[in-house]
Amino acid sequence: MTSNQIKRPLGLQLLIYGFVLLWLIVAAFPFFWTMWGSFKVELDFFSKGDWTHAISGVRTQAVYGESFTGAGYEGAWIQEEFWRAFSNTAIVCFFTVLTSLTIATLGGYALSRSGFRYSFWLLIIALVFRALPPITLVSGYLPPFYAWNVWGLLPTTIIVLVAINQPFTLWMLHSFFQTIPKELDESAKVDGCTQFQAFRHVIIPVMWPGVITAGLFSFLLAYNDFAVTAVLLSQENQTMVPKIASFMGTTQTEGNVMFAVAAVVSSIIPLFLLVLFFQRQLVSGLTAGAVKG
Amino acid sequence: MKHKTFFWFFLPTALAMLLFIALPLTSVVSQSFHAPHEEVLLVSEICDPFGCATESTIDHQATEQLKKDKPLGQWVGFEIYADRNHLAFKEVAEFWENRTSFTGFISSLNNLQFYRAMGFTLTYVIVVTPLVILFGLIIALAVNSLHRHLKGLMVFFSLLPMIVTPLVGSLILFWMIDARGIVGSGLQEIFSDPNLSLKASTGLTWVTLIVYGVWHSAPFAFIVFYAGLQTVPKETLESAMIDGASRFQQVMHVVVPHLSPLVAFVALIQLMDNFRVFEPIVGFSAEAHATSLSWIIWNDIGQEIRLFSSAATTSVLTIIGVVILLLPVLIRTWREFNPEK
Q1: What is the CATH number of the domain that holds A90?
Q2: ipTM (interface pTM)
Q3: Between vectors from CA B171 to CA B165 and to CA B176, what angle results, nearest 5°?
């Protein structure tokens, strides 16, 4: 395409730059705007009269003497105990990713190395499970969880999230293991290894790029989940997303929307860092399924 | 791999999916055919000098016993499916008979919760999916023509709307389009209408949700198409150029056909994901104007007395919808796998 680039007429060039710039603003501006605004008072964050107040923080200055304030964060993290939700999210994500990677690696490896018909059908079933909206399963979880007295606990939610993540993680790891040549573990087996030994000594050392990518996506699924965590967790075990949802009701009536804004920004920061450090893996993961067709 | 080794490797993941996807699924289906027990009433006749009257009291013991014996509730068959909150056969037939015009019939369906949700869900799927593909393609073509250093930066910022939690992303936009927010008040300036509110009317709420959907999903299509653009065969492009194809013709006849399997992939994923649209409705507090199938399930479960039977019935109907959406893909895979049939 480089040869094309030189001959591109100026009009088209300008159109492309204009469009890219527009998309850049549409995609990124809301986040920066909200991050900036989260350090203001509500009257600046929502400044109907003069939008420049949201940037300069005139009213914030009037209240706190500075144009930035951490009051929203203090209210959310300490007064409303958002730190608890943050640590719950950390626990849920850590164990969900760990468990789902462990069992999906074994399963995905087995699927990629078994040429039998049933492995194809298992993949199709996984695809159908992937397509089910998680919320449709929730009414099936509740009665038994109440009966066994395990409703509201973090481990219950972790197991459910692991199961819901499985179809996706399984597909991803299956297509990744197919790119690792079969000859590698075959030759280990010829040398006298059992299948599991071949997996342990030959496959595990080379599987980390694929596993990290799959881990990122199962982290995102757990981190972003709302339908399951909101229904299955009790008040004090809530993770960040349902906590933010419950803020919406309470803060609107009590007039401290800024708590919710601060909580929202706090929950975006980890995702920002994730994209910053793992951009390449995320992109390769998104396209992995596609390129196989 | 031997069957036995396969079994042991696959057992943990199979157990997880069996116990927490397949089993709940059967439980949801059976819930949808059962209604909660009614209370057992004790009818007794009390006579006093003024005459006799019957009095009914709740027999708590018998009610508890019944709930214990049959925890699923009483079998009602397809009754819940047919009731007013789901397929509403009776009401639909009535509307059909009393219709004045076809559009009148459609708008009277809007009074039924299930059809209203279905209407929005389908509109969302049908409008958002092609728009996502179109915008994703345009962004990919534009970014691909940029300088190498700019490309990485664009990919970074483009990933943000997709990666961010849907509920959080919709809240951020919700605050911006608020009448006091920057976009909301900006729109009031532009249309010089101080009472303009994107939240007030059904039409504008739908537009807002659809714009959110495109904003959230276009990055996915962009990334996939962008990766596909890196593998467009240079020779074909060059020969098209030599044959005098214009830039637009090159895109339409070389690039797009090359990307067509990716378009199918993006469309499949988008159909599945858009059909479950739910979080933006909560984030935008849009339930007065737009509800989706997932939202009514959520609403039933969130009631003080959790309406399991009703939620389960909507769940089963939603799952049937998902299967219908997936059917073309499943049939195609089946044909590829059994070419002789």
Answers
A1: 1.10.3720.10
A2: 0.90
A3: 130
